[in-house]
Recover the amino acids of this structure.
């Protein structure tokens, strides 16, 4: 027990999960899209015939257009920039929606190539969210699974500038350039690593020899025991309510947490379907020392997910997510045209290879970051159905702590 308590003194809340520890609880006391713009702000753009971004810059100046869009409620324009006929830092679907909202004619010719390797870090700015979580009293995590190695290095450096508090990196062990990723986190002095999707024995010893705290994500008590044997410092037990990739056991968080608690003495972090202070308290009653929260923070102002994706997820109801692609890697998907195609293929008995072809490459990036709500792979947790508004991280953290404290004071008997 003392080992678990000592570990949790290092961390409080994490994205790509957020981790809220008892120490934090004892010590702490709209939507994305456009708002209404005034006529004077937008009328000058009505009817503007736009044939290319070069024409837009020549006619009005991209900075002026971006400033006007910001006044209309677009919140992720601070990294947008224009260079050689292309707009960077803003996904194509977002740009198209923005210019349409401004009353301009928009075709694919205006979009340029918004994503290049050099500009990817501007759009997929996980360091912003990770640093915001850490600054709000938690442990922010940078998700390495979708990044080129050198972009991860850039995110780590930017995160270190943005926060003086600890943060970590989440690394899927099946990442194709895993050796390069591991060397980068060591070279950059990262002290906390969350690993997933692989055998913890492979890298845990190597990381710990270099003074790094290792936490591994599991979906069953059997794998939690293997983690303890491998020497990890803590485990995240994630129920299948969670968004994205899930375990094949399909065990709910309420069932998984007590099972893992009984099977291991490691510090236990609960995950999956947790987005409220009451949920945090429930997880702790079941035996967890902290919680990992993903979905609620993925829908905050600081998240680098597309505003279109956030707005859509904030409108979801019960049953709007479903666990599919079980022949490949079980993944919780939001209803859209792509999910319908997956369901149809699975119902007709599609093979692994056929499903892999349907999935293709980069579809999650297309949906979550570029805002393609029909053909993109949209991943979010079941708990999205009880989240209805976009908020800044600090506000979310404050609500979580205060709600947990209120819940803990109630007399339930």
């Amino acid at each position: 027990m003392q080992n678990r308590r000592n570990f949790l003194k290092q961390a409080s809340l994490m994205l790509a999960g957020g981790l809220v520890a008892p120490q934090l609880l004892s010590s702490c006391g709209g939507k994305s899209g456009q708002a209404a713009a005034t006529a004077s702000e937008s009328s000058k753009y009505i009817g503007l015939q736009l044939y290319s971004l070069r024409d837009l810059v020549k006619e009005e100046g991209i900075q002026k257009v971006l400033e006007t869009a910001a006044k209309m409620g677009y919140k992720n324009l601070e990294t947008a920039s224009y260079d050689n006929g292309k707009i960077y830092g803003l996904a194509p679907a977002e740009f198209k929606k923005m210019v349409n909202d401004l009353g301009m004619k928009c075709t694919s010719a205006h979009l340029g190539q918004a994503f290049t390797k050099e500009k990817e870090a501007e759009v997929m700015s996980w360091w912003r969210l990770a640093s915001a979580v850490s600054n709000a009293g938690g442990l922010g995590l940078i998700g390495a699974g979708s990044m080129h190695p050198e972009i991860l290095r850039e995110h780590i450096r930017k995160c270190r500038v943005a926060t003086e508090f600890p943060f970590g990196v989440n690394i899927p062990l099946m990442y194709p350039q895993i050796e390069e990723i591991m060397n980068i986190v060591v070279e950059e002095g990262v002290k906390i690593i969350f690993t997933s999707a692989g055998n913890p024995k492979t890298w845990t010893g190597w990381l710990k020899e270099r003074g790094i705290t290792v936490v591994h994500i599991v979906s069953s008590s059997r794998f939690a025991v293997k983690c303890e044997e491998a020497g990890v410092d803590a485990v995240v037990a994630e129920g299948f309510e969670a968004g994205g990739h899930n375990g094949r056991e399909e065990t709910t968080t309420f069932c998984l947490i007590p099972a893992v608690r009984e099977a291991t003495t490691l510090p236990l972090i609960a995950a999956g379907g947790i987005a409220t202070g009451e949920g945090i308290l429930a997880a702790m009653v079941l035996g967890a020392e902290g919680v990992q929260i993903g979905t609620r923070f993925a829908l905050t102002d600081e998240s680098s997910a597309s505003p279109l994706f956030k707005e859509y997820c904030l409108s979801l109801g019960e049953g709007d997510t479903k666990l599919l692609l079980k022949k490949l890697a079980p993944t919780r998907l939001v209803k859209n045209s792509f999910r319908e195609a997956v369901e149809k293929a699975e119902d007709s008995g599609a093979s692994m290879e056929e499903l892999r072809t349907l999935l293709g490459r980069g579809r999650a990036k297309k949906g979550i970051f570029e805002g393609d709500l029909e053909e993109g792979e949209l991943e979010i947790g079941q708990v999205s159905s009880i989240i209805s508004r976009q908020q800044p991280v600090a506000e979310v953290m404050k609500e979580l702590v205060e709600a947990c404290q209120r819940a803990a004071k109630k007399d339930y008997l």
In short: The chain is about 40% helix and 10% strand. The two ends are 27 Å apart (CA to CA).
